[in-house]
Amino acid sequence: MVDGENAEAPKDFETLRALIIERRATLPKRLAQVAIYALDNPDEVAFGTAASVAQSAEVQPSTLVRFAQSFGFQGFSDLQDVFRARLRERVPSYDERIERMRQHGITASRSNLILDGFLEATEQSVAGFRSGADRDALDRAVDLLAQAHTIYLIGLRRSFPITSYMSYAMGKLGVRNILVDAVAGMASEQAGFIGDKDAALAISFTPYANETVSLVGSAKARGARIVSVTDSIFSPISAPADVLIEIGEANFEGFRSMAATMAVAMALSVAVAARRGGG
Asked: pLDDT digits over 112-140, tens only?
């Protein structure tokens, strides 16, 4: 038995980090190797798969399980939850963002400064995506979506305005789609008829909506093709994706632009309609 298997698992990242540092020198060689990798690459541990993390850390997946159990976790996924919670905790709340603006001398009486800040973030988002966009991925996404019998649009919380626009645009353009809006808590039921002739377009950004992640996993399990629009290859909706579109939105005082994402949504909607029409 590895020391610590029966110990209570740390509930937060800082406690876990301190415990890893404390015990790292006494861990067996392979577990110490995982410890070093985890401390150096916490985002990758949070959203990688067991296979990808093991490959990057140059150990076997079973070593990850042993490492997690040595700190009181039942398995690697439980350990990942603590790393994922770290990301959610470091995203400032809306109250904190407003307070940051006040500290920087930006108040409601200076609305032009606020407008200029958001316009600059919008320009940065669009320019950054234009220069770094994977155009082949966009083409593959259009091909995949155009071939689908029905396109399920999955994007909750701050991503919902994007998917709701796409549903409106696709509806006007004659593209069969279902908007998963989670009204009355019916998201699972709304996505429940997805099948292997369908596609799901999912949108989620840090700190990632848990329900979106779950719905993408269910859609993948049902044989649907997946297009994921997200901010990192380590996003939990990246691994299931047949096509990944990565977008890094700029922010103003912690409030992130959605300009580049909306541009991609508009482009995909129109391009899919054109492709289905033989254009």
From this structure: 888 988 899 899 999 999 999 999 999 99
Nearest residue to 9 via CA among 57, 58, 77, 61: 77
What number of H helices and E strands is found in the chain? Answer: 13, 7
CB 148 within 8 A of CB 274: no
Contact 205, 231 (CB under 8 A): yes
Same domain, 61 and 37: yes
96 assigned to some structural domain: no
Q: What 3-state class would DSSP assign to 268?
A: helix
- CATH assignment of the domain containing 241: 3.40.50.10490
pTM recorded for the entire structure: 0.69
Position 98 in a domain = no
Contact 215, 154 (CB under 8 A): yes
Q: Distance between CA 269 and CA 22 in Å, rounded?
A: 52
